[in-house]
Amino acid sequence: MKKENFIWNSIKIGLVAGAIGIFLCLVGMVEIFSKRDVVKDVISLGMFLLLATSVLAGFIASRRTSDLLEGNKAVSNLLAGTFAGLFTGIVLALFVLFSSQVNLRAVFLNVTPALLELLTFGQGTDGVWQILVFGTVAGLVGGAFLLLSPSIRKPIVNAVMVIIFMALFSSLFRVIMVNQSGGIEKAAKYLFSQTGLTANGGLIFFFGTILVSVLRSSQAGKVQNLVDKLPQKGKLSLRVASIILLAYVVIMLPNAAGPFIAQVVVIISLYILMGLGLNIEIGFAGLLDLGFVAFYAIGAYTVGLLTSYGEFGLQHVSFWVAVPIAVLVAMLFGGLLGVPVLGVRGDYLAIATLGFGEIVRLLAGSDFMAKYLGGPRGIIGIQKPCIGTLGEFVAVDVPRVCNGIELGKPQEIYFIAIASALLIAFFSYRLRESRLGRAWMAIREDEDVAEALGIKLVQAKLLAYMLGAAFAGLGGAIFATLVGSIFASSMQLIVSINVVALIIVGGMGSIPGVVVGAIALIGLPELLREVSEFRFLLYGAALVTVMIAKPEGLWPSQNIRRELHREEAAPIPSETTS
Amino acid sequence: MTPILIAQKVTKRFGGLVAVNSVDFEIPEKSIVSIIGPNGAGKTTFFNCITGFNKADEGTITFEGAEIQNLRPDQITRLGISRTYQNIRLFANMTALENIMVGQHKFLHASWVSSIIRTKGMMAEEKGALDEAQRLLNYVGLKGKGDLLARNLPYGEQRRLEIARALATKPKLLLLDEPSAGMNPRETEDLTAFIHRLRDELGITILLIEHHMRVVMGISEKITVLDYGQRIAEGTPKEIQSNPRVIEAYLGRGAATEGMENAHERFGNKKS
Amino acid sequence: MRTTLGERLTDWSISGFMWGFRILIVLIVVLGTFFTLQSGKYTGEQWIDFIVFGISQGSIYALIALGYTMVYGILRMINFAHGEIFMSGAFSAYFLATWLNTVGFVDANPVLGLLIPILFAMLMSALIAMLVERVAYRPLRGAPRLVPLISAIGASFFLQYTFRGFFGPGVYAYPPIKALEGEWVIFGIGILRVQVIVAIAAALIMAILYIVVMRTKIGKAMRAVSEDKDTAALMGIDVNRIIVSTFAIGAAMAGAAGVLYALIYRQVNFFMGFTPGIKAFTSAVLGGIGNIPGAMLGGMVLGIFESVGPALFLDGLGIIRPYQLKDAIAYTMLVMILLFRPSGILGERLTSKKA
Questions:
Q1: What residues of chain B, 17 to 36, have a C-beta less than 8 Å from chain A?
Q2: How many CA atoms lie less than 13 Å away from A376 in the CB half-sphere?
Q3: So what's the ipTM on this one?
Q4: Shared domain check, B176 and B60
């Protein structure tokens, strides 16, 4: 095969990167993200996106060049990076020139004057040349980055990641820290601005991370030795200490952070809970269930009907009675719907469950069921949980009096959600390490063989499906209580997609993966209005990227990690005698 | 010796293709029997009919006196038939030990509730299962590799792990589908010895599909030859070697088509 | 038989439940139909209206279903993003048609005014589908089945929200075409012109596709690849090129369907692809996935059932505003067909190779 010229190749990469840049502009990300800063007065998130695109283009072009030339050749690598960056810039510059002449806004809403101003650094079309410089330099940096030794590259990448992470979650950290008094508050203001990091904060995090990564790579062995040397008891107390610390953070978080953050954290923990439930289906048993929302709805409606003091409340029992019933009802429905559906294989199962989910939503929202479920008006007036005794039910639209502590606010329901999530994490872990967990994983890996080893497919799948349904029901029940009302219109497929996405991004079958996935995919959009605008765009991109680049997810399940760890520890000689 | 498995007039069609055509077949208890035949002769399909992967269209299969042709694979396994696969089908992302423990599934009874609260009974059952799995692992010569993911084992070890997994179901009849495929001569020799051990030490009846004539002739007590889905010969290795129909079936379309046949067989297996 | 009592009980209860499910559906259909017809609430003319609407709707489903069926036939993969391809066609046509309309071209040349947006939509849809195939599906060829499906779900959301980002969340009104307004009176029954034109246009496009697949070289190559990829490759067929063409042709059908859909409903928005996408998939399975005439038949059957169903089956059972459950009828058909006859109406009895 003829080898491609590396310059031509770099130009192609630059053109693709330019197209991506235009896409980011058209879809509105650049402009909206420019309202958030990575580092205040230095670079906004929107500009960072474009910059990162050019740098990556340079880096990829440089790497492809090394492949083509079979080895690093400084001049060619730099040249490749420069060309890629330059062409990224050229494409963007042409875009700016074109849209300053033609009214693209008639079609593409986001080609606003503000965007053009942003792209030309506020100088109109005269500033276009700056894009080229900007792109070229970025590409050159990307190209040069490849030439650095990995031991330098890694800390820098880490540092950039930490800065992005800190900037994205800055509002969370800032609010928590500002609510404390004294030194912590001052530190918060020193590190974080309203919209991102301050320049000082950026420097501190950048060099701090570099320092830590360098130290870690050089000292890792020593620390590990230190831990290993600890006596058994010492190791245990180290673990206990870290668990206590974590528990302290978890318990103090809502009070420290205030109602908004508490609400976000409740939603995250609800999704962790549902993620763990669906993880039993997708991650363990390999059943892609897109109708998860149906059981969420069933749980929510059951709690609504059982506790609401509004017009559709059938009973007026307490939350603590209603939730277990809701879970059982969801589980029962899981069984009823599961029996027919589970005979269907793989990809058809996904579509069949999706169909069921939609049927449940349509029925719940229809006038036909409106007598019972409120139809589009929904069920309102769901009784808040009460620790203590509940007073008598008086009349419709009058809540029952709670003699004791009423858990009404998000930061209070937070504890119920966290406790449930922990409980379910525990359940998942225990199930995973049992004969059922093994049976599910066997089904996931190869259904036919699993059956041929004596596993009853329908029963094993049904159990996974029912447990998943039960946990979804619990999630729905808590959600209904948190919001205080239920509407059929909130039972969209999107809920299922949220859960599926967080499992897949976090790592299928991995319990910590669900937590990581929920924080990233649910927390970020809830925290940042700018991100929530592009929530599903990002989910879509994340699903595709994860499937292509890292099917095991961000935080792969224990097995795979255990294995990787072992391989590093002792390479296995491959003998073949028996 | 009484036959442990009797197949009578078993027929399996795929559309217009008759993959297995009215085959009669018997396996004496505690014997080692081979099925041979050119690729695409219907050997694997016949296996699939015995293990319930494919439902035979006609005929009966009787295992220890019970008809099994209409049972599901898991039910057949519970009766005591287990198998390995031509193209190894391990649970790639599970460890070697977990693979074996899946095979023990039919002996374990802990419910999901007792698995969550870890009752004493469940823990004892798990412990027993783990010990047994470890023992099987050692038995097939994979000592110390229990925590490795199946996909990371070398080829020969994967084959042996698959046998260990099949053994975990405590089969009375073990079906091996081309166990020596892809093995070098030394590994093949080891395998032959190992199959003998399975029969002699564990008393398992063994049915194999095999292409390696040295293996077949070396260990089989009885050989059945299939061609175009039909049984064309049956007998001891000696008888088979001198049977003119067998020679014709092999040599008539022998060496020249060998390559194509490999592709066919792989394709045929996709159907299973 | 050495199965335990408990085992037999579970088997019985499962099959009993399945039968109960079937009987329930049959009861709904039979009783509903009986009571509706007895009540005489709907006139014959109304029924004909329902059926005509069902046919034009169904012909759109059929057009979209072709893409599902062709891709499934070749890659055994559910192209979940296909509904979005349909949406992107409708959107592209919207902008062109609006422009043509303001220029006055449509009023001057109604036929071309209809044809040009359709061709443009087909082109755009095909381009987007090729891009999606290249980025989201090709790297995953040969991976376990759920992997490309998840990637397709991702691509679907990505496309949906890309369009939302580009053009905003609002609903755009598709420009009216004067030539399509009004009714034709046939045998004394008034039929909306749009619906007839849409059905005819869809039938024409499908006929062209059928000829392409059955007669041309590329069509033959497609059929060969869908039978057996490896052998086709050995025969010198460039499998990659055929897969891309399949995506492109299927997408072009969906793009055309997008325009026809916009003609009937007169509106375009970023979320419009989801429901028709699922329904078209239902049609594809209904007719036997991988089977081109099957997809056409499935689309018609689904369109008519969905249009007639609420009045015929549900109204008689005393369900208020049954048309709210129109989609539920389609989804029930989807679940039923997947459960009881996944090979579809025209599908060959599934050998496990294709299952």
A1: none
A2: 3
A3: 0.87
A4: yes
Q: Is C3 on the interface with B (CB under 8 A)?
A: yes
φ, ψ (nearest 5 deg) of residue B35: -110, 125
Give residue B154's domain range. Answer: 91-170
Measured from the Cβ of residue B128, the count of other Cβ atoms closer than 10 Å reads 13
Extents of the domains making up chain A: 1-147, 150-222, 223-254, 255-560
> Any CB–CB contact under 8 A between B160 and chain A?
yes
Selected residues 30-69 of chain C with any CB under 8 Å from a CB in chain A: none
**C351 vs B contacts (CB less than 8 Å):** 14-15, 271
**Are B67 and B100 members of one domain?**
no
* B243 and B111 housed in the same domain: no
Treating both helix axes as pointing N-terminal to C-terminal, what angle do A45-69 and A128-147 enclose, rounded to 10 degrees? 50
Q: Flag whether B86 is in a domain.
A: no
Residues B190 and B148 in one domain: no
Which runs of consecutive H residues, i.e. helices, occur in A342-456?
346-365, 370-373, 410-432, 435-445, 447-452
Does the residue B260 lie in any domain? yes
Count the domains in chain B.
Answer: 2
Please list every residue in chain C whose beta carbon sits closer than 8 Å to the beta carbon of residue B270. 353
Residue B26 belongs to some domain of the structure? yes
Per-position pLDDT tens, chain A of length 578: 445 677 888 888 889 999 998 888 888 888 888 888 888 777 888 888 888 888 888 888 888 888 887 777 778 888 888 888 888 888 888 888 888 888 888 788 888 888 888 887 777 777 788 888 888 888 888 888 888 887 788 888 888 888 888 888 887 788 777 777 777 777 877 888 877 888 888 888 888 888 888 887 777 667 667 766 766 777 778 788 888 888 888 787 777 777 777 888 888 888 998 899 899 888 888 888 888 899 999 999 999 888 888 777 777 788 888 899 999 999 999 888 888 777 777 788 888 888 888 888 888 888 777 777 877 778 888 888 888 777 777 777 777 777 878 787 887 888 888 888 889 888 988 888 888 999 999 998 888 899 889 888 888 898 999 999 999 999 999 988 888 888 888 888 888 888 988 888 888 888 888 888 898 888 888 887 777 888 888 889 988 988 888 777 666 665 555 544 444 443 334 333 33
Q: Identify the burial level of A488 via C-beta atoms within 10 angstroms of its C-beta, where 0-12 means exposed, 13-18 middle and 19 or more buried.
A: buried
Closest CA to B272 of B158, B170, B168, B175: B175
- Do B28 and B109 sit in the same domain of this protein? no
Judge: A434–B154 Cβ closer than 8 Å, yes or no. Answer: no
Interchain contact, C352 vs B75, CB within 8 Å: no
Q: Spell out which residues of chain A touch residue B48, defining contact as CB-CB under 8 Å.
A: none
Domain check: are B204 and B250 in the same one? yes
User: Are residues B177 and B270 part of one domain?
Assistant: yes
Domain C41-340 coded CATH 1.10.3470: yes
B40 token code pair? 């695409």
Last residue of a domain, one of B141, B170, B199: B170
- What are the sequence ranges of the domains in chain C? 41-340
Q: What is the C-alpha R_g of chain A? A: 27
Spatial CA neighbour of A486 closest among A329, A364, A574: A364
Q: Are A520 and A510 in contact (CB under 8 A)?
A: no
- A358 contact residues in C (CB cutoff 8 A): 278, 327-328, 331
Domain boundary among B170, B185, B209: B170
Is B15 within 8 Å of C348 when comparing Cβ atoms?
A: yes
| Cα torsion angle, C51, C52, C57, C60, sign | positive
Q: Do B266 and B210 lie in a common domain? A: yes
Kindly report the backbone phi and psi dihedral angles of residue B182, in degrees, each rounded to the nearest multiple of 5, phi listed first: 75, 10
DSSP character at residue C171: P
A397-414 in b/e form (b: 16+ CB < 10 A) is eebbebeeebbbebbbbb
Closest CA to A575 of C249, C202, B160, C345: B160
Subunits with 3+ Cβ pairs within 8 Å of A are B, C
